[in-house]
Write a structure and sequence with these properties.
By secondary structure, the protein is α+β, with helices and mostly antiparallel strands. It has helices spanning 9-22, 35-42, 46-58, 87-92, 112-118, 149-152, 165-171, 191-197; strands at residues 62-65, 69-72, 77-80, 98-109, 125-135, 138-148, 177-188, 204-214, 219-228, 232-235. The chain has 2 domains: 9-72, Arc Repressor Mutant, subunit A, CATH 1.10.10.10; 77-264, Chorismate lyase (3-Layer(aba) Sandwich). 25% of the residues lie in helices and 31% in strands. Strands 4-5-6-9-8-7 form a 6-stranded antiparallel β-sheet. Helix 1 packs across helix 3. Residues 7-75 form the HTH gntR-type domain.
Length: 269
């Protein structure tokens, strides 16, 4: 058999550094060796080392601070989406402290898009909620939620700073939740996301469009969730032996997703 082709040197460096990060040799927030130090260690040029570090940065394992150096990223929090849970409901069970900053909670006329999702008429009153979710006191997501006024009236006086909307709907409003349809894509942070999540403008953001239905299949809660790309993951197990529906490019409600520039990734009510 022919001899195996050796991996490029930058790949070898990347793999070695990744292993040292994952096994705790370089713990979160630890400063990585400089490019010149790594060059001496691996007998590589700074260009080769820089290429390896660049790949690790794309993977989210390290980050750079201008004028200070390269540091190990903290592990990203994650939420499994195999069951329908609110953010606090899922994350508190994993030991995280969850707090919410309420940016607004009010009744507004439903836009055509929101009305379509909730099966209302355009202009019908809906409760609009904007919240920044904090994970261990650090902002991790911005949530935009719309609920029909008939259901959401109780939300106007509920403790939205510490409670999940799902639990309020179930426990306070008597709504039995059924299922949710999700659509996931990535956008770049605009001014609002930059301020809310304390990230740089243009930073990657994970956008989740979610339409939640009650047990009878009626849409009850429509929302956009914007997660920091460097701080959070959604995880899902895929079973090869279960039949899945065909892939679709439609929105959760089955309507064509509105195509908007990344800087305008948040629809109005």
């Amino acid at each position: 058999m022919p001899a195996p082709i050796p991996l490029p040197l930058y790949t070898q460096i990347k793999d070695a550094l990744r292993a040292s990060i994952l096994d705790g040799t370089y713990p979160p927030h630890h400063q990585m060796p400089s490019e010149s130090e790594l060059g001496e260690r691996f007998r590589a040029s700074r260009i080769t080392v820089r290429q390896a570090l660049g790949d690790l940065q794309k993977e989210g394992l390290i980050f750079k601070i201008h004028g200070k150096g390269t540091f190990v990223s903290k592990p990203r929090a994650f939420q499994n989406v195999t069951s329908l849970q609110g953010f606090a409901e899922a994350m508190s069970s994993m030991g995280y402290e969850i707090l919410n900053q309420i940016r607004n909670c009010k009744c507004v006329p439903a836009s055509r898009h929101v009305a379509t999702q909730l099966r209302l008429r355009e202009g019908d009153p809906v409760v609009e909620i904007r919240r920044v979710r904090l994970l261990n006191r650090e902002p991790v997501s911005l949530e935009l939620t719309w609920v029909s006024e008939a259901v959401g009236r109780r939300l106007l006086t509920a403790d939205l700073a510490t409670r999940d909307i799902f639990l309020i709907l179930e426990n306070d409003c008597g709504v039995k939740l059924g299922h949710a349809d999700l659509s996931v894509d990535a956008i770049l942070a605009d001014d609002e996301l930059t301020q809310a999540l304390r990230i740089e403008e243009g930073a990657p953001v994970l956008r989740i469009e979610r339409l939640t239905h009650d047990a009878q299949g009626t849409p009850i809660d429509y929302e956009f969730l914007y997660f920091r790309g460097d701080a959070f993951q959604y995880r899902l197990r895929a079973d090869r032996h279960k039949t899945a529906p065909a892939a679709s490019v439609t929105s959760p409600a089955g309507h064509a997703r509105p195509r908007k520039p990344a800087s305008k990734g948040k629809p109005s009510a």
